Amino acid sequence: MPQKSLLMRLLPLFITVLVILIIVLLIITAPKAKRGAPAPKASLTVSTSAIKAAPFTVDITSFGRIEATTRTELRAQVGGKITYINPAFEAGGSVNQGDVLVEIEKDDFNIAQLQAQATYIDAKRLFDEETARASQAQSDWSNAGRKGQPADLVLRKPQIAAAQARLLSAEAALNGAKLNVKRATITAPYKAQVLSRQVGPYQVMAANTVIGEIFSTETVEVTLPIRNSDYPLLADTLAATASISTPLFKHQQSKTTPPKTQQKWPATIVRRSVNIDEATRQPFVVAQLSNASLSTNGSLKLGQYVTASIQGRTFDNAIVIPNSSIYQGSYVYTFKDSAIYRQPITSLWQSPSVTIVQSGLRDGDEIVTSPLGQVTSGTRVRREGEAKSRPQRKKPAGKHARSNMNKEQTP
């Protein structure tokens, strides 16, 4: 009994001591709040560029083939034996307006002309005789003292009409014979380059035979298909300009050969389509090149493929950004307050190098121009050129400060 009463008296004391020990242990092991912890250090450096709205002229790219503005298939209007062919009348040759290309034997045409001339002279004689007889009949009627107007037969009017008809027919035959003599000499209708020749020396050919084909070198043109999305961006004025150039292929820029210079020619848009091209299913424009170099030593050839840069509309306050700053064609990264943010955009027009932004960016926004992968929006970064910021660490003053630091580092 005495032991039991002693235990009963000491039990409250044990409980009190145990509670105090638990409280002290909780206080010691409780987590300590770290006040003034520094912000996460930026580990990514980016290049940025401030957007500035400015006038911008759209350049629309296209391609096509050089074609002749004026192309003529030459045909002989008379038949006969060829006696002369101009040495320049060969494929690739150049001729001037009025140059003789082909001559046909003229003996038969000269004979026909002489015969027609003789017929004309005889018809003229008969007409003059009938005219004289009619004048004499009128005088005889007046001298005879007859009254009234004589009949047509008396004045030989039917005979005069018949003689006049024969005269007109003879004159027409003479003009036709002269024309055949002239047609026996085939000349170039304009300054041209020869595409082909279909006849040879001393060949006997019939009328309407094709002798060759030529095209004018004064102007050439190229039909340029335009994407449906780009067609509204063409300049409003019809006389828009274009730059025609020859395309450079990769094999032309090998390491063993010197770099080639891309030649360019100015051109003018002269026509626009009112229909869709059957081959490309796109609208098109026609660019014309004046005085292009199309000789055998020239750089441009008929049928050659060329590329074109067409002047389009000018936007007064365009926001233009490089394509390299656009990701998946739909968003960019903007820079603000030492962090980057994903910003969706919509495009109005895009070239191989730049894009006109329709919505999503404003004048003064700063975009990231250095290449990035998939970066979380809000990631802290350091702008290129800014000094690296190092956190300042204060030296602990005495044992008390060292003890506090140890407490803060305790998990």
Describe the structure.
With 411 residues, the chain is α+β, with helices and mostly antiparallel strands. The protein has 3 domains: 42-64 and 223-253 and 264-387, Beta Barrel (conserved putative lor/sdh protein from methanococcus maripaludis s2 fold), CATH 2.40.420.20; 70-103 and 187-217, RNA polymerase II/Efflux pump adaptor protein, barrel-sandwich hybrid domain (OB fold (Dihydrolipoamide Acetyltransferase, E2P)), CATH 2.40.50.100; 106-183. The protein is built from 4 helices and 23 strands. The protein has helices spanning 2-29, 107-143, 157-183, 398-409, and strands at 45-46, 48-50, 54-68, 71-75, 80-85, 94-95, 100-104, 185-187, 192-197, 204-205, 210-216, 219-225, 241-245, 264-272, 284-290, 305-318, 320-322, 331-336, 339-344, 346-350, 354-359, 366-368, 382-383. It has a 6-stranded antiparallel barrel. The protein has a 4-stranded antiparallel β-sheet with strand order 4-11-9-6, with no helix packed on it. A 4-stranded antiparallel β-sheet has the order 8-7-5-10. Helix 2 (107-143) packs antiparallel against helix 3 (157-183). The longest helix is centred in the N-terminal third of the chain and has 37 residues, at 107-143. The radius of gyration is 50 Å and the shape is rod-shaped.
Q: How much helix is in the residues?
A: 25-40%
What is the CATH fold-level name of the largest domain?
conserved putative lor/sdh protein from methanococcus maripaludis s2 fold
The oligomeric state of the chains shown is: single chain
Distance between the termini: 50 Å
β-strand percent reads 25-35%
The CATH C-level name of the largest domain is Mainly Beta
Tell me the overall shape.
Answer: rod-shaped
State the low-pLDDT regions, or none.
Answer: 390-411
Strand order of the largest sheet: 3-12-15-14-13-16
If you average the pLDDT, what whole number results?
83
Helix count, DSSP H or I runs of 4 or more residues: 4
The structure class reads: alpha+beta
Major sheet attributes: 6 strands, antiparallel, barrel
In N-to-C order, the SSE pattern is HEEEEEEEHHEEEEEEEEEEEEEEEEH
User: What's the architecture of the largest domain in CATH terms?
Assistant: Beta Barrel
Instruction: Give the beta-strand count.
Output: 23
The total domain count is 3
